[in-house]
Task: inverse folding
């Protein structure tokens, strides 16, 4: 298992971690298999979406914020229940196929860590299963 | 493949299955790899979120119910389309990393079966891939 | 890694790909393990839900469209930010258990490719990990 660190700068942010994943995959020497990307934080998530136009990320975060606004009406007293629900909806983990020592992503796809309660320093765990 | 049973008591409920998963992992004797947790029900899901404060679970379920209320306007005549959409949004399966015979979860993370059309007796399938 | 093609006919559509997956699994000769189903498109997704009543799919797509309508207010200028957010919410990939040369799905479950910005010709990548 490999661990990477991500430093977020805002309350909500999508950070492209594809370059880190490429490096981890290259260093592993594994040719084929799958790569599991796991977020261990309850107010963070992992998603795969468009990387070319940063406006897509801004739209995704803004839409989520409108649907799930910060509110004082939640039972959880830490004031971040909106972040927990966003984390549940986007999901904690993704699995990507590894082929010829490369992550198999679509033309426009990048892998993002989603911060929903930053800024914080976050970890992502990566596990490569050869096969 | 190992099967565990979960008995739910309400229409909507998040049940912590981390203890069951720990037991399955321990009994398997597998040191390292990944664990796939699969929900075979179309009105259930699997999520990973905070386990310490039960209010987080209550907030998540309440927010989902407000966004996707029970309604008689749906085409599906069984009256549980809200449960099907919640299942699609949260997701049927999660993959967790296994290291040194233990599930690698974050400090506050627990694995939950999500019931959206209970009470029922439900199954969860678990598959460990060594690697 | 195996690639299958899916041709969609509408802007939004859920296409049952379970038959394709069954064929891929059978041809592989693998008895046990897991099957990763990966969508390489940023306006598509993979979900597992009810296949028996087509009304469930219609309800899911209609609910998503009401929650995330097409809008000219988004920053992304291609006019399909609603499709990107739907893709993020449903998810790019699913992992299903393989047992005795068969996908282990629940009685009512089918695997669907979700089109959110069609009609298009789409690809799905499938990777079987024995174990």
Result:
């Amino acid at each position: 298992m490999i661990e990477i660190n991500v430093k977020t700068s805002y309350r909500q942010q999508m950070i492209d971690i594809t370059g880190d994943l490429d490096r981890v995959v290259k260093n592993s020497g594994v040719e084929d298999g799958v790569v599991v990307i796991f977020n261990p934080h309850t107010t963070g998530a992992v998603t795969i979406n468009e990387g070319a136009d940063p406006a897509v990320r801004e739209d995704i975060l803004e839409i989520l914020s409108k649907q799930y606004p910060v509110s004082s009406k939640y039972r959880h007293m830490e004031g971040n229940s909106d972040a927990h629900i966003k984390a549940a909806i986007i999901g904690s983990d993704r699995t990507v196929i590894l082929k010829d020592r490369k992550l198999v992503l679509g033309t426009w796809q990048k892998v993002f860590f989603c911060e929903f309660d930053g800024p914080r320093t976050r970890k992502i765990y990566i596990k490569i299963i050869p096969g």
The mean pLDDT of chain C is 96. The domain at 2-130 of chain C is CATH 2.60.120.460 (Jelly Rolls).
